[in-house]
Amino acid sequence: MLNLIRADFYKTIHGKVLKVCFLMMTGWIFLCAYAQKATIGMREYLVGTEVSANYWDSFFNYYPVVFPLIIFCSYYFSNDFRQGTVKHYIEKGLSRWSYFFSKLVIGWIVSFFFLVSAFLIGLLCNKIFFGISGFTFTNISNIVSYIFCEALYHMAVSTLAISLVFLIRNSSVSMAVNALLIFFGYLVLHGLESILGLGYNITIFWAISNINKTRIDMAVQWLPTAIIIFFAYMIIFGGVIGTIFKKRDIT
C-alpha cells in the first residue's frame, strides 16, 4: 500500500489535474478578495483589524477550496476505473481495502495542501487588496486552530467525494453529484430534522456547511466537532463504500 501511495503521490504532483485545480483555486481566491474590497475594504468606518477580521470570517463562504477539491477528486480518482487499471492492482496482490484507503490518503494530502495554500494566498490577498497583514486581529493559536479545523472539514469532504467516485465510477456523474451535495446537502439534512422531529441539530455534522461557519477567533471551540466529523466521515462513508467496493465486480 505504501508503494501505491508513493506512486500516486508522484503521479499527483506531476499531473495536470492538480495544477489546473490549484490555478482555479488561486484565481477564485483573488477574484473573491477583489469583490470583497468593494464591500468591506471601502467602508471608511472600519479600522484595519476589523477589515481583516471581516475578510477571514467570510473567506470560505464561497468555497474556494471545496470546488477545486471535488473536481480534482472526481476526475483524478476515476482515472483507474476509466482506464481499467483497478483490476491490474488487485491482481498484483493488493487488497481492495488497501487500494481504497491509499486513495483516501492521497485525497487527504491534497486537501491539506490546498487548504494551507489557500490560507497563504488569502494572506497575500489581505495585504494586496486591504494593505494590512492578516495576523493583526488575532493570535497564532487561533490561526493554527482555524487551519486545523478547516483542514479536517476539507479532508472529510474529500473522503465523501472519493467514496462517491468509487460508488459511481464515472467522473462527470461523480462531479455532478458532489456539486449537488454542496448546494443541497444542508437543505436535505435540515428537511430531515423537520420531518423526523429531531430534538437536536444534525446539520452541525455536515462538513460542507461547517466550512463557512467556523470563525477564526472561535476555532478552538470548533476543534472537537471538526475531529468528530472527520472520523465519522472516514468510518461511515469510507467504511460503507469500502465494503461495497470489496464485494463489487471490478471488471
Report what the structure shows.
- The protein is mainly α and 251 residues long.
- The protein has one domain.
- 77% of the residues lie in helices and 0% in strands.
- Helix 4 (66-76) packs parallel to helix 8, helix 4 crosses helix 9 (171-196) and helix 8 (140-168) runs parallel beside helix 11.
- The longest helix has 35 residues, at 96-130.
- The relative contact order is 0.14.
- The model has no long low-confidence stretch (mean pLDDT 84).
- Pfam families: ABC2_membrane_4.
Percentage of residues in helical conformation = over 70%
Number of domains: 1
| Class from helix and strand fractions | mainly alpha
Give average pLDDT, whole number.
84
General form: globular
Pfam family, one: ABC2_membrane_4
Protein name: ABC transporter permease
Transmembrane segments: 20-40, 60-78, 99-123, 143-168, 180-208, 220-245
Keywords: Membrane, Transmembrane, Transmembrane helix
